[in-house]
Structure formats: C-alpha cells, structure tokens
Amino acid sequence: MPSREYLDKLFEAENEAKSLLEDARAEASRRIAAVKSDVDARFAEARSAKAAAADANAQKKRSEADAECSAEIEAYRASLDDVPTFYDKLAAWCEESLDGII
User: Fold this and answer.
1) Residue 83 gets which letter from DSSP?
2) For residue 88, which of 49, 54, 71, 84 is within the disulfide window of CB 3.0 to 4.6 Å?
3) Long-range CB contacts (within 8 A, 24+) of 92-99
C-alpha cells in the first residue's frame, strides 16, 4: 500500500500546485488590472491637461487675431476718411467752374 500513499501525496501536491497556479493567475490579473487602471487614469489626466493648454492657447491666438483684425479695420476706416468722395470732388469742380463765371 505504500505506492497508494505516494499516489495520494502526488495527487495532493498536484492539487496544491493547481491551487497555487490559480491564485497566482488571479493575483497577476488583479495587479495587471490595477496597473492598467492607473495608466488609463494618468493618460486621461495628461490628455485633459494638454487639451486645456491647447484650448487656452487657441483662445489667446483668437483674441490676438481679433484685436489685430479690429486694428486693421480701424486703420482702413481712418484711411477712407482721408479719401475725398465723389461729392467732394464734384463740389470742388463746381466751385472752380463757377469761380470763373460769377
């Protein structure tokens, strides 16, 4: 019967090894899930920070472009004030023409 005892002990050792393997797999899965969760959280945080910085930069550039555009429009309008209109030229021509007649 000693061979039966050896077989029983081998069977117990095999079952214990299977149990240890299952425990190790479960622990590895838990650790992998924890690391993945941590990495995902860090990535989301970094992505949000980059997006916020990009939005702030875009808003700054938009404000600068709006200010530059407004300045250009004001400069153009000011230059139009210096250009004589058709009516100004007509009035000047009429005055010149009538000066000789009257």
Assistant:
1) S
2) 84
3) none
* Token pair 């050792």: residue: 13
Q: What single string gives the DSSP state of each residue in 53-75? A: HHHHHHHHHHHHHHHHHHHHHHH
- The reply to whether the predicted model has a pTM over 0.70 is no
Coil/strand/helix, residue 77: helix
Instruction: Give the side-chain half-sphere CA count within 13 A for 51.
Output: 6
Token output for 89: 């030229």
The span from the CA of 101 to the CA of 94, in Å, is 11
What pLDDT digit, counting tens, does each position of 34-57 carry? 999 999 999 999 999 999 999 999
